[in-house]
Amino acid sequence: MRVGLFVTCLVDLVAPEVGVATARVLARAGHEVVFPEGQTCCGQPAFNSGYREEAATVLRSTLRALAAADVDAYVAPAGSCTTMVRTFAAGLLDDDPALAAVAPRLYELSEFLAEHGGELRGRVRRCSVAYHDSCHMLRELRLRGEPRAALARVDGVSLADWDEQRCCGFGGTFAVRSPELSVAMADEKLRTLGGADALCGADPSCLMHLRGRLEKLGVKTPVRHLAEILEEGTRP
Amino acid sequence: MTDLVREAGTRGAPASSLRDRERAALAGSGHLQVAIRRSTDNMDGRWRGLRESLPGAEELREAARSLRSAAITRLPELLGQLADNVEAAGGRVFFAADADEATGYITELAQRRGATRAVKAKSMVTEEIQLNARLAEVGVTAVETDLGEWAQQLDGEPPAHILGPALHKTQADWVRVLRPEGYEGGEDPDAMCAFARRTLRPRFLDADLGITGVNLAVASTGTLVMVTNEGNGRLTSGAPPVHVAVMGMERVVADWPEVDLLLALLGRAGSGVNFPTYVNCLTGPRRESELDGPEELHLVIVDNGRSKILGSPSQEALNCIRCGACLNACPVFRQIGGHAYGDVYSGPIGAVIVPLLSDGNHELSHASSLCGACWEACPVKIPLHELLLEGRAQHAGSERALWRAWARAWSSPRAFALTGAPAGLRPPQALVPPPFREWAKGRTLPRREGSTFRTRWARGEVLD
């Protein structure tokens, strides 16, 4: 398939390695990957703060850029931004043709691989991974099995037992409006990490928050996006 | 009593900010969090288990949602029918537009009856209207008879949870609270319960007034349905000569099949039991042929801001059956406890309804990471996280200029790329802009390694 990458603002500006990994994994699964220029952000920071008009402005510009691409599907390495477009955008934009063109064809990465991942398989050194269920992905998109199935494509990866479903405390602008609370929530979750070799998730925003907290605490456990583990495991 | 706790018992805008109250709750000894975790994990765990094991749990929740929504849509009609049927059964009904009217009616009644002693069964709406304080002003001492609520009253604290008002208290706290009442035992829950029973029993028998809440009011028969776990509601409504039942106007249901479904969900969602321990269905005061029951029954139906929610985008908040499941599931509540919300209603449902009911404390809608665990736990499937977003949108404004500038920049790919440039730098602390400085207090600032994705793509560096 011809796949348009919706890379998301955070990946583009802060964690480009996640975008690179996503593009390579999709290509290795046999897809043609394109990057629709002109995309920026899904508008979620403003939307979650209550500024709907401003959120709509940014969302609309990104949707227009995505819709202009001639692709069969769109893939985002972020459950939250996927949710913004698939679930929340309808209440924000009335009858927007770009939304109608993009939303039904937008997949979160592991969701896309579950349907169109083909025979993609890989291998890494034995590694126990604590997978973090990000809230939008779990409760809005209902993607619980898909990211785990994606990890299962990589031999050597085993899932560690931890408090996988509790919110990590990021919550968008919540993380700066209530920083002490946000950090306390991260700590409660991270205390259950135990001896896992890596913390993994499918939402770069949660991972940025959790990595920042682990680094501050001096804990060396690496934090990896799902795409990075898949990329590493499937290197030619 | 700390300022944090004192504010929780008041209405309107608290003097402190939400963040200050969060910080105060987090800066404690950690006992608060330990106690809350122990109780809420218990209740949430059982409800979670029931949702998985109960056949058709999801369908039951959907059905409850539709029934509640239908009743709220017919609210004026159902309230009229309820009032007619309560009066036909010999009760009296008073519609109170606000807290003053409600407490005014009850204090006048108390004075007419020459009452000085009242017993109360736990009721959130009487906390909302500050009934105990108004009763004290006319010389009526109201004693809370729910065990947890009694402990809160003795401790000078408002309830910290809809269902478990004292669930933040440790066993040591309980001993401290009961000691001045004459308790001489140790941290043994059975001994403390026995002491409470001995101490409270005469209060029921001596009381001039019995005051309760109402879980559900059945319009078709004028019956008040009241749920308790300790049986104190039965004694409160039945022993004193006058029973005053106070209900928020949204508590009404059309008919009995709704009661059947909602009670089945209330017990399961609230405390993980298949059915509530005590369910009282009261239709009118004592009849001539009956031995027990009050001489007078008064039903006070309280609006106090609820009718403003009717017809608004937040109407579904009125579907709430006050089970407390959203508090038990909430990752924020377990960190800061009920009092940090600054109102009698706390947790996700509190963060939704407090700003709506009181037209104050608007920042409560930000007391959430929007994780949706509340929505997942709600037995009537109120989309609480969406209503929190609605609340934020309703009171947006102070940051408008900032978000407008952001929207202008981020709807232009070129300006977007420019604003992202500093992400590759790690500036000295003093040069970090304020929101990121807040971030950096407990976390390292993220730093991009190398060029942005779009630059790498343009250079052809992305694919193998």
From TrEMBL, chain A:
InterPro entries: Cys_rich_dom. It holds the Pfam family CCG. Residues 3-85, 129-211 form the Cysteine-rich domain. This is (Fe-S)-binding protein. It comes from Solirubrobacter deserti.
From TrEMBL, chain B:
Pfam families: Fer4_8, LUD_dom. InterPro entries: 4Fe4S_Fe-S-bd, 4Fe4S_Fe_S_CS, FTHF_cligase-like_sf, Helical_ferredxn, LUD_dom, LutB/LldF, NagB/RpiA_transferase-like. It comes from the Bacteria. The keyword Iron applies. Keywords: 4Fe-4S, Electron transport, Iron, Iron-sulfur, Metal-binding, Repeat, Transport. Residues 1-20 are annotated as: Disordered. Residues 311-341 form the 4Fe-4S ferredoxin-type domain. This is Lactate utilization protein.
